[in-house]
Amino acid sequence: MGRWAIGIVLKSLTAMLCVALMAWLALWYLIPAPPTSIVIATGPAGGTLDHIAQRYRTTLAPHIKLDQRFTDGVLENLRLLKDRASGVDLAFYVGGASNSKESPELISLGRIIYFPIWFFYRGPETLNRLTELKGKRIGGPVANPAVSQILRANGINSENSKLSVRVGTAAVNGLKNGEIDVQIVLGEVNSPLVQSNIRDPAVRLMDVSQADALARVYPYLSRLLLPRGVIDFEKDIPPADVNLISTTIAVLVRKDMHPELVHILAQTLADEHGGAGLFQRAGDFPSQTDPEFAVAEEARDFYKNGPSLMQRYLPFWMINFTKRMIAILVTAIAVIIPLINYAPKLYLWFLEAYMAKLYRRLRTVETRLQSNLTGAEVVGLQSDLEAIDRAVNILPMRHSDLFLSVEGHIDRTRQRLVSRLAEAKLSDSRSG
To answer: In terms of Cα–Cα distance, which of 92, 72, 70 is closest to 81?
Structure first.
């Protein structure tokens, strides 16, 4: 292969490498790598959501580091998640506090568990309507949006009842010591606070007769049935079926969360909450819909179709890298195949341009021959002609026709230069 052909190949390879480099840089920007650690806002330390987050952390440990941020509850969780400077990337959410219209920058990964609202009370009278709590001393998470909305709907407020925030040990002791009449508990059936109250023979669990009506009015609420004896068959706890009103817990993220993070979180939620429970059948959670927020498309696709091929066989850190490489390969193919198709045309264009350059140089020599020249000037033109001859000699053998054609022109010009040189020398000798 001649130097001229090698030059064309090198230029083409350089162009391809530049295209590949630009594609890589563009994809590095358009397909950024997911972060190596994230932060979840949970709720009070030691609560149900704290324990769930700890399970998430264990499940995610091989893929990504999960840190926890303890908060006072759902309102603080929302505030932190909306604030990009807070460092919080996802948060537990209890229904009733917001929605997509009020928080358009947030999306859901689905609802993960039922979170019943338990009404425990003491006394001989049977309570089954929430309006019957008017005038009583009520303790619990009364500031929780779902709880406060239910109380307001039944005409219960701080003007006609004594409402106080009592959680944890203070809640148990307050009801036991007679400091409050009703204790509201928000949590799973296995939470210590629920178990301590429901197993206390002196404490009664309210059967919310209007649970179904509340669930129809407020879409984030659900009616649950706690069957007789399901807590303890031997002791027959509860002694009768109990209607409960329940909210649900969702995991919220910002809309711009990295898609691979959404996938790995959706897989974690499915692993942790996909089984059957006291109130749900296998597959009920995590949900593909959310009554208050749009569900992330990646999460919904995972719940519906399961993990993708890459998620099944590649480690988390390698998935994004593989996507980049595939995108670069596709881009390269899209660029290289047209180049290959146009390579013959490109080659001919370079050849024609090269030959046109040589003929222009030869034409310049021919034009100079039309004027009066000294011997030194003719020798200079001979040097130019020999340079053109050397340039022609690098043409590949397959272009011998072009080579011979140009050589014929060069030979004719060379002969004329020889004649002009002889004439110039004779003229110079006569002048001398």
So the answer is: 92
